[in-house]
Records
---
Amino acid sequence: MNYWLMKSEPDVFSYDDLVAKGKAEWDGVRNHAAQGHMKAMREGDLAFFYHSNIGVEAVGIMTIVEEAAPDSTDDTGKWIAVHVAPHQKLDRPVTLKAMKADPALADMVMLRQSRLSVAPLTKAQFDHIIAMSKG
């Protein structure tokens, strides 16, 4: 299993929107590095749902339920999307500020490349963020 962090602006599409839909296409990603990460995703992988711009925090976990396929919002056929489903809401959000301040997360790709909307996590980083959300 692989672990990820995926960003969305909550005023455009939030974790609660995903829960309401039950399943959604993670579309509109137009960055080559982020696309590479999405191509590496496998059904059953877990990803943090991270609210960017507003809140700036991980708020929930989602499951990759369909692997890379053409992005329905792309008329060029150049970009891909994955489908996700809600897994669980975090006990409490984990802010970007808290992640940056924690030495255990110093090597997180998202912290080194903050503009990246889809980034991999190690299992240790994933588990650490879950622990942060509990306490």
---
Amino acid sequence: MLAANAETVFVTTALTPADFKPRRLERYLATAWESGAQPAIVLTKTDLCEDVEAAVLEVEAVAFGVPIHTVNGLTGDGVEELSPYLAGDRTVALLGSSGVGKSTIVNHLAGGTVMPVAEIGIDGRGRHTTRHRELLPLPGGGLVLDTPGLRELQLWDVSQGLEQTFEDVAALALTCRFGDCAHESEPGCAVREALRSGALPRERFDSWRKLQRELGRLERRLDARARSEHSQQIRKEARQRRRTQRSPRGRAR
């Protein structure tokens, strides 16, 4: 559990080669959509990016309908665009990997240093400073939840979120000739036709496949765990019945 009762999730990533990964954004978006919160993407460290507009276009290609904001943590430029998400005392949670500048955003929103930050290394990477989750009320109203940087984000029951994140693939799949099309060798597969024409980028499709497989493995593991727990409960109840039958009070006359 990363956060609860947040109206908006800021999916935060830095515009540096080490951190800017659209495939990672897809994973975060699937989790955010599934939570019921509204995601917004915040691209930080614009001062370290040579072509911010190109980066935004790349994000738009994987984040359909999701607002995208760019922020310069050094100057605070762009942070003012984030304030409306907090209006009406709403709660915003920040998610992202270590060192992307989440705590810097919180400090700008708060109008002062409320979370510790560290200088950027010579390789352009930020440093991990936040080690716990903290819910902070802001002077102008609203609450912001700063979270530690995530080294890895595993999927957890995000079937609906995955469909929203990959709505382009889902829309194509609906037009396949067969409803149970596996998009491999079936005739009339709209997904494979889009791949051939270039309308659907191969890396986008491969990412969808990868997350689908990961979600399938999770579901199978949870099903196995549920079956195991059910069997254990049955054995526990059987042992309890045998103990009751052997006891003097439970012995039939």
---
Amino acid sequence: MMGKDILVVDDEIGIRELLSEILMDEGYDVTLADGAGQARLVRERMRPDLVLLDIWMPDTDGITLLREWDSNGSLTMPVVMMSGHGTIDTAVEAMRIGAVGFLEKPISLRKLLDGVTAGLQHPLPKKSPAAARPVAPVPMEVDLPGPESGVDADDAIECLSVPLNLPLREARDLFERRYFEWLIAQTEGNMTRAAEQAGVERTHLYRKLKQLGVNVGKKPLQEE
């Protein structure tokens, strides 16, 4: 992807410089912004081929900036969100507004390059602010079990894809249901391991599974 312009927006100088070095080594042209203010100025004078946008920034958060670009017709380039505190709600909201991907910090080299490649393959057409957005399933990398689980992350991402033409609540519920179904399968129905990997209390996990209609094996779920 030689000659592609990527805008990196992050208030942490170390992250900006690291991402810039990696992307430039891969042949991309990189512009850096330390926050929403600089990102707005860059967007006024050019349209990047891709934006890597941090969510938590001190001046204006990334979700607000993404919504601003969408409302004023400036969201004519794919945007991949970044966050060290990713949640399902935040990811779903970003995708609903128009982001094409979500990378959770710390971002590995493979995830960064895969995310950039995938983002560049999903360009947004020029549109008026009122125009409808094309709907397509988009993979989200949010709160998945870590490398120690031995699970193939690529398989997980594919199975957790959620269509974006749903209301926020339905999209979130669908994502959570798929996530827990996948997690139960990976742990072979071991609720203790599933709760540990999900980072929730065992009792809360049972209640969540009941709420989402996720069953383990042939027996109905029961709290222990």
